[in-house]
């Protein structure tokens, strides 16, 4: 480095150093100011389902879900065509998780007319079916679930037994799969 007689760094080198520092720190300062100072947030989210906010703990009757992430369908045990479509959607998503599929359970909470056992055994081997049709259990469960059309809805329940997200099965299955992959990658529980 060339120095002037008084030991200071020469002006052109100081200018270059300051320019490099400005190029590095200016974008960080602008981003920090926009995000924290003005509350600016990107307009699009990377999730496809609907977050249940605030997170709701599942009732005592459904606490059997604790321990794994669960993809839950709530409906009649007779399982009409809409129910079958939702369960196929859940099964295909579960299978598409490949090596992560052991971390996700498929669950059906039956609210009445339990159960078409042959159908579940033949088409959905491995699904956990719980009868919550007793009046008290059903009332508790319905109080926790969002007010949506249940026959088209799958819910994601975390390993702690909390209702986290919901998905409409009439929408793209790729969205649910994408969200579950991200969730399982980032989660250290379950």
Written account of the structure:
39% of the residues lie in helices and 20% in strands. It has helices at 11-37, 81-96, 117-123, 135-144, 173-186, and strands at residues 50-57, 69-75, 104-110, 128-131, 153-157, 162-168. It is α/β, with parallel strands linked by helices. A 6-stranded mixed sheet has the order 1-6-5-2-3-4, covered by helices on one side. Helix 2 (81-96) packs across helix 5.
Which labels suit this protein?
single chain, 190 residues, alpha/beta, 6-stranded mixed β-sheet, 5 helices, 39% helix, elongated
Mean pLDDT level: 85
Order of helices and strands: HEEHEHEHEEH
Relative helix content: 25-40%
- Poorly predicted segments: none
Distance between the first and last residues' Cα: 58 Å
Number of strands: 6
For the report, how would you describe the main beta sheet?
A: 6 strands, mixed
Strand content: 15-25%
Q: What is the structural class?
A: alpha/beta
Question: Treating each run of at least 4 consecutive H or I residues as one helix, how many helices?
Answer: 5
- Specify Rg, calculated over alpha carbons: 26 Å
What general form does the structure show? elongated
Order of strands, widest sheet = 1-6-5-2-3-4
């Amino acid at each position: 480095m060339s120095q002037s007689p008084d030991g200071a760094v020469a002006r052109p080198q100081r200018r270059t150093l300051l320019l490099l520092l400005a190029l590095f720190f200016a974008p960080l300062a602008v981003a920090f100011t926009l995000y924290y100072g003005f509350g600016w947030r990107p307009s699009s989210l990377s999730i496809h389902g609907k977050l249940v906010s605030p997170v709701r703990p599942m009732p005592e009757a459904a606490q059997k879900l604790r321990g794994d992430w669960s993809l839950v369908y709530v409906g009649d045990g007779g399982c009409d065509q809409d129910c079958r479509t939702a369960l196929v959607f859940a099964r295909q998503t579960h299978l598409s998780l490949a090596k992560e599929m052991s971390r996700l359970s498929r669950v059906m909470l039956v609210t009445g007319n339990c159960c078409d056992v042959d159908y579940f055994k033949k088409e959905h081997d491995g699904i956990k079916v719980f009868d919550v049709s007793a009046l008290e259990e059903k009332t508790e469960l319905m109080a926790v679930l969002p007010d949506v059309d249940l026959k088209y809805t799958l819910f994601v329940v975390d390993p702690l037994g909390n209702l986290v997200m919901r998905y409409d099965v009439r929408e793209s299955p790729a969205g649910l799969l994408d969200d579950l992959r991200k969730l399982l990658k980032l989660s250290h529980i379950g």
